[in-house]
Amino acid sequence: MGSKGEALRQRIITAADELFYQQGYENTSFSDIADAVGISRGNFYYHFKSKDEILIAVIDARITGIELMLNEWNKKFIDPRKRLYYYIDMPLRNQENICLHGCPVGSLCTELAKTNHAMLDDANKMFIVFHGWLVIQLNLLGVNKNVKKIAMQFIARVLGIVTVANAFKDKSFLKQEIKQLKKWLDDEVLEFCHQ
Amino acid sequence: MGSKGEALRQRIITAADELFYQQGYENTSFSDIADAVGISRGNFYYHFKSKDEILIAVIDARITGIELMLNEWNKKFIDPRKRLYYYIDMPLRNQENICLHGCPVGSLCTELAKTNHAMLDDANKMFIVFHGWLVIQLNLLGVNKNVKKIAMQFIARVLGIVTVANAFKDKSFLKQEIKQLKKWLDDEVLEFCHQ
DNA sequence: GTCTATATCGAGATAGAC
DNA sequence: GTCTATCTCGATATAGAC
């Protein structure tokens, strides 16, 4: 539990997080992570007993990362409508990575579902965190019918757009469809909220 | 080029196709395929020089399979609107597999994008085939503005729904959102087509 | 805590008998 | 054409020196 070991543990998680996103979980080896951090493969096992264990740590880090990010957004924007715009624009802000590697949450869930990995139930909690936050923003805007359903539609629509943009590596499609989604939010979801 | 060898080649492709869908491409070994077909690993290499080569064959088979399927649909339904309904309902007809393994096209593209595989450009042709067919149906229904764009939105929305349903293994979400999508088709896309 | 060395396994791929 | 036997490599994981 020394501070040096803890710091290294964090560096391993950060490197693994990035590599899992860029290359996928199964496709990323201990060597890849060890090289990225600059340690030996053997040292790795002092901090994590298995590859699954680092996946757990990465998912955990991502969840708290998302929670921190959403708290920042809450501080940055008082208007819930602007928060929702900022959510929708997220893929545009990360458009390079989105086109190269897809959705960090969705692509991991897709991989874990494919390999029948037990951690799928923890991975999709990342979606749940976004969902809970979306529900709150919609409630604040006076949307009180089908809020949970609408929040899931948000997530599904963004994910669909991002996944297609990734498959075709098409930045312009991403831009165009995110714009369309904003229109949907204004015209369909928040039709009766003119605050 | 003997008929027996050709038949076995087809059986290998069929088995690989199914396993790639269920387990993913990288996660499926030659042993898996050989076991499924009931041949030895060595025999495998008489028919395919490498694992990539069978991926090519599988994608090729899937594309012609999709084309055949869409031709069947064209024969089965004269009304293009009913064809579009049938397209939208596809995930419901395959709901068990969808929840277990996701979208056969989308999940493969996501994996190939992640591993930077050269075959991604061929895999997303599966989407293109669907897209071309959707454009034709929309044209037949008198939609003449943004047809290509709308057809891609179709694909992206279905893919988003399917990917979320797969991540949560949630059949009821799938049903509910497909229903919603049908409403979107009627109210937004075909609003002015009352044939 | 971090390292090197090594065990073990399963993968893709090849050689050659039949 | 199909098989068995084998090669090679890279992966996860362990043992033990420092």
Walkthrough of the structure:
2 copies of one chain form a homodimer. Chain A has 195 residues and is mainly α. Chain A has 2 domains: 1-49, Orthogonal Bundle (Arc Repressor Mutant, subunit A); 62-189, Tetracycline Repressor, domain 2 (Orthogonal Bundle), CATH 1.10.357.10. Chain A is 79% helix and 0% strand. The first copy, chain A, is built from 11 helices and no strands. Chain A has helices spanning 3-23, 30-37, 41-47, 51-76, 80-93, 95-101, 104-114, 120-123, 125-140, 147-168, 171-189. In chain A, helix 1 crosses helix 2. The longest helix of chain A is centred in the first third of the chain and has 26 residues, at 51-76. Chain A is elongated and about 60 Å long. Chain A starts with a helix and ends in a 6-residue tail after the last helix. The mean pLDDT of chain A is 95. The interface between A and B is large, with 41 and 41 residues. Chain A binds a DNA duplex (18 and 18 nucleotides) through residues 2, 4-5, 8, 29-31, 39-47, 49-51.
Question: Which terms would index this structure?
Answer:
195 residues, mainly alpha, Arc Repressor Mutant, subunit A, 2 domains, 79% helix, DNA-binding
Helix/strand layout:
2 copies of one chain form a homodimer.
Chain A: H1 3-23, H2 30-37, H3 41-47, H4 51-76, H5 80-93, H6 95-101, H7 104-114, H8 120-123, H9 125-140, H10 147-168, H11 171-189
The structure holds a DNA duplex (18 and 18 nucleotides).
